[in-house]
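B., you asked whether I could sanity-check this one before it goes into the benchmark set. Here's the sequence:
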Amino acid sequence: MEKTTLVQFIRRQEKLVDGATGNFTSLMNEILVAAKIVSLEVNCAGIGESIFGLTGKVNVHGEEVQKLDEFADNTFAKLVGQSGTVCAITSEELEKPIIVPKDQAGKYIFMMDPLDGSSNVDVNVSIGTIFSIYRKKTPGDEVTTEDLLQKASEQVAAGYIIYGPSTLFIYTSGNGVHGFTLDPTLGEFFLSHPNLRIPRQGSWYSINEGNVEKWTDKQKRLVDYLKEKDPETHRPYKLRYIGSLVADFHRTLLKGGIFMYPGDRNSPEGKLRFQFEAAPLAFVVANAGGTASDGVKRIMDHTPGDIHEKSPLFIGSVNEVELAESMLK
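And here's what the prediction gave me:
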């Protein structure tokens, strides 16, 4: 049976777009090369020179930076930045965007959470990279606020890479969601999950119940409702929570249900970053038949006011997200 590589698939997809220049394929190729490098480093963690632990630095969010965070951030930024396809790169780890020199710049803007869940690597839990791609909107060479702060629905593509028992590359460019698995013997990603679709209704919920004392009363009632026994409405739901956003979302995408990271009394705006986590995953789930909300409005309808803006996130099957909205409003 003939296998389709990620690069072959992207080239075929790009041919369906009028006026395609090949720049998008070139950008995606650099992303997948960076993913292979990071995957290898993650798989070798603990062997030889240790990449476990902290760098001693603190990022823009006040979080201690893991060595793997820094390695992944540098790897993606270098390869994507030198690809000739992007004019700016923004990262969860960097306070300000990287502006590519004009003579090396392209028309795309690349945004990333370089290594989501990196604190779990020392206990061998799946971690990942989340990315999104926008097209520069303003004319001329200067990268403006309008370019960097676009509505989530204006994404050209988004996806994530999971570094786990196998390395998976999941992405959408607005024409379905497709998954590719890395064959380590050949060093190639092969199509393994074509046209992923999330069930309209699931039987799983995912949330950190250790934060229950900080939740609002509405959030507590929502979770209590999911845990109640009522066969007619297919309750109770089953709880699954890993604590690595990429892994929790990926399971939700495949199995259905809802992942929740709400705001709480201490952090009403939540802790997930809109541009680096909420928006790209919302774009993925929307193209798989699901939806995402901040509890009040759709993530895809929101335009952020800051690169590092935070947002609550309720994401997954349509029925469960709509239920959450109805109980939280």
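One thing to flag: The helical segments are 6-15, 23-43, 67-81, 145-148, 217-227, 245-255, 274-286, 318-328. Otherwise nothing jumped out at me.
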